[in-house]
Amino acid sequence: MQTLSAAQVWREFEGSSEAHRTKSLPRGHIHQTYVIESEGSSHAILQRLNKQVFRDPETLIANAGRIEPHLKTSHLMAPRIFTRSGHPCHVDSQGEYWRAFQYVRPSRSLTLPESEAQCYSAGQAFGQFQSALRDLRAQDLRICIEGFQDFGVVSRGFASAIESDACDRVSHSRRFADRLAALKDQAPSLSGPSGVVHGDGKFNNLLFHQDTDRVIALLDLDTVMWHRRALDFGDLVRAGAVRGGEQDEQAELELTWVRAFATGFRVGAGDLVPESGQLMDALLHVTCMLSLRFYADHLNGDEYFRVETPGENLARAKGQCALLEQLLSRRTEVQRAIEAG
User: Which among 297, 280, 287, 283 is positioned nearest to 319, based on CA atoms?
Assistant: First the structure.
């Protein structure tokens, strides 16, 4: 069956598409994302949801409906374009789910920070996000992915992937598998207050104002859940406080960025902020968990995280494992940076 093009689907959101063109974006590990351009400028963001990961896309729609009214009480935006039917998603003839977001102007997205001011704003935004949703309860949100961000589930999945070796990849990375298995026992458990968190608190899930270092929107709200509040901070620092990408084994942790993230997060979260030790534990916990998840996905045939080239998830796992080792060796100074924030 022929796959519908993004341009064809876009007509369901905005009638005629003659004045528009679509361009695929590599952004994100999960969904297929397109930018809709009109008269030379970006008009909207269109996504085809990954049903292999989110098996019940209706849960995303239901959760968005609970989240968005609360965000309107803060300065953070959650813009959305609805279909002509008034429903926030379009289901095509092949059962694929599509959604569209208004393009936020004037804005820019960044892969990594360029300054301490941006780190401060990023931390503040995730803290404000948690604060804006403080009135929601665990039962107010539906579970999108069973076991997501559950270290026990991830650890068991890691062991199962090694045992099954579905794609015959263990033999090529056995030394790394043993190294990671030994390290995972050093990852502390999450502790501290619980509440509604973003669940995927990466730096590149933020939109900054085009001309300032102020965050104006948070993206990718698919994993909003009830969890330990320190989780978002740990993920933000893991992905944003290094000079390098997720798969860079030589990436160096930037302590001034760690401090700025912590300062902003405290200001944004206010009385909800966890203790410094709990924030440090979250950083170690999340870094280890991501390494386990990347490696398990590599062994399982790259079913969860999209890859552009073979072995990309293995490289991501190695990068996060190297970062975990760096965090453990520099734990005292990283803890001081968090406390100084």
Answer: 287
